[in-house]
Design goal:
The chain has 514 residues and is mainly alpha-helical. Helix content is 53%, strand content 6%. It catalyses: L-tyrosine = (E)-4-coumarate + NH4(+).
């Protein structure tokens, strides 16, 4: 049963935040469409204006012309009604994996919010049906691949247009169904898209923007988790807490960097007595953790700005200005801001993977872990020769980190000239967003492994005769982790526990820094 802890999300003239899209993607919020008379009239006025131009035989791109390079081809009025179906039909060539349910909901939310500006020339009935898809959790089956990010996400969004029209397939009540059958079951007539409506649905940045919202939310939680893991590792490695001193960071006051240091100080209860130091200066993966994580922390604000402006913009073409009775032909479908944001995010996140990978390498190595057993094995002395603890986990973590770093190649610089050189400079924003999601997946795997290893290290320290009590925040985290992840004494296969940890990360299970 779906629960709704989030306030209802209203599509209309009120801007949405990333958190609204995340709530919808996770089925944690009900939706409604703004329905006051003035708003409904604003939407209807755009559709009426388009109809009046058709009556006057006005030339409108994608309405009375062909698409893309075919904009020079006039379409006789008797064929105008057939154009929308042809548009979503010939774009039905997506390949690759299907977007998952969470991502598909985010895409639907991004597309609806863009069309709600009232400058796309669509009917209120289209907005109502798209909102109903979200409310009833009717999810078009959308292949991931096939978009160059300008003229928008044409191919993946064609699956939205087609399913609204009762074609292709959807996921409904956890079953793969024909869209026509779901319409019939709900007593709906499939939409017959009006001139401009298929173009309005497809000619925009909704796929990359929906994915960007999800990527942002994952990165935000990952930042907090990596900070907590670092604090655990300072304890496990008996590091120097003075590396996070407030006066030190006042000398280089990047706000995000200062925040990370403050969180680590809170976790370590830094004013409490500390254990004797093994090194005056810890290795960089501990000492410089605020400097590494701080770059992501300081970047989140401008990343949010790029994503939310795109989310709350009209990004199709042409723009229909019914008030001034003008049709404005432009390129708002170009996803350059999202492309740059996602290329930047994947580099920021991969650096988190690299940081945590280095911390784990210190934990398992007796040359650097200040007295912990080799590979963090909890086996007794007589069984130590047989047990290898976290040895293979560290190897896997190195592999995941390497793949994350490899995937930081920016997609946005790989523009291709497509569609008879009409789309001759494209954003690659959707590929960048998919890359960012993949880098996040890999980095979350690194975080899961390093978290379990850090927890093992803290447990091993707690068994020493001179063990000190953990600071409150870390004691609580250690106790929470102990419920699911018992210490590794004798070797055991850790795949299931790593997957459970990944599930906990996806659910943002642990309450971290505010």
């Amino acid at each position: 049963m779906t629960t709704h802890p989030h306030e209802p999300v209203t599509f209309g003239q009120t801007p949405l935040r990333i958190e609204d899209v995340l709530a919808l993607a996770n089925r944690q919020a009900p939706t409604r469409l703004q329905d006051d008379p003035d708003y409904r009239e604003r939407i209807a006025k755009g559709a009426r204006f388009l109809d009046s131009l058709l009556d006057k035989e006005g030339v409108i791109y994608g309405v009375t012309t062909g698409y893309g390079d075919s904009c020079v081809v006039a379409v006789p009025l008797e064929h105008v009604e057939a154009l929308p179906r042809h548009l979503y039909t010939f774009h039905g060539c997506g390949l690759g994996k299907l977007l998952d349910a969470q991502a598909t909901r985010a895409v639907l939310a991004a597309r609806l919010q863009s069309l709600c500006h009232g400058v796309s020339g669509v009917r209120i009935e289209l907005l109502e049906r798209l909102q109903a898809f979200i409310a009833h959790d009717i999810l078009p089956l959308i292949p991931e691949e096939g978009s160059v990010g300008a003229s928008g996400d044409l191919t993946p969004l064609s699956y939205v247009a087609a399913t609204l029209s009762g074609e292709r397939e959807v996921l409904f009540k956890s079953e793969r169904r024909l869209a026509a059958d779901v319409h019939r079951e709900l007593g709906w007539a499939p939409l017959v898209l009006r001139p401009k409506e298929a173009l309005a649905l497809m000619n925009g940045t909704a796929v990359m923007t929906g994915l960007a919202c999800l990527a942002y939310a994952r990165a935000d939680y990952l930042l907090k988790l990596a900070t907590r893991i670092t604090a655990l590792n300072v304890v496990a490695l008996q590091g120097n807490p003075e590396h996070f001193d407030e006066r030190l960071f006042a000398a280089k006051p990047h706000p995000g960097q200062m925040q990370i240091a403050a969180w680590i100080r809170q976790d370590l209860a830094i004013d409490a007595p500390t254990a004797p130091l093994h090194r005056l200066q810890d290795r960089y993966s501990l000492r410089c953790a605020p400097h590494v994580l701080g770059v992501l922390a300081d970047s989140l604000n401008w990343l949010r700005g790029f994503i939310e402006i795109e989310l709350n913009s009209a990004n199709d073409n042409p723009i229909i200005d019914a008030e001034e009775e003008r049709v404005l032909h432009g390129g708002h479908f170009y996803g350059g801001h999202i492309a740059f944001a996602m290329d930047s995010l994947k580099t920021l996140v991969a650096n988190v993977a690299d940081l945590l990978d280095r911390q784990l390498a210190l934990l398992v190595d007796v040359r650097y872990n200040h007295g912990l057993p080799s590979n963090l094995s909890g086996a007794s002395a007589e069984r130590a020769i047989l047990n290898h603890g976290f040895k293979a986990v560290q190897i896997g973590t190195s592999a995941w980190t390497a793949e994350a770093l490899k995937n930081t190649m920016p997609a946005s610089v790989f523009s291709r000239s497509t569609e008879c050189h009409n789309q001759d400079k494209v954003s690659m924003g959707t590929i960048a967003a998919r890359d960012a999601i993949r880098v996040l997946e890999l980095t979350e795997q690194v975080a899961a492994a390093t978290l379990l290893a850090a927890n093992q290290g803290v447990w091993l320290r707690s068994r020493a005769e001179d063990a000190r009590p953990l600071p409150p925040a870390l004691a609580h985290m250690h106790a929470e982790l102990a419920k699911d992840f018992p210490p590794v004494v004798e070797d055991r296969a850790l795949e299931a526990e790593l997957r459970l940890c990944l599930s906990r990360i996806a659910q943002q299970h642990w309450r971290l820094h505010a």
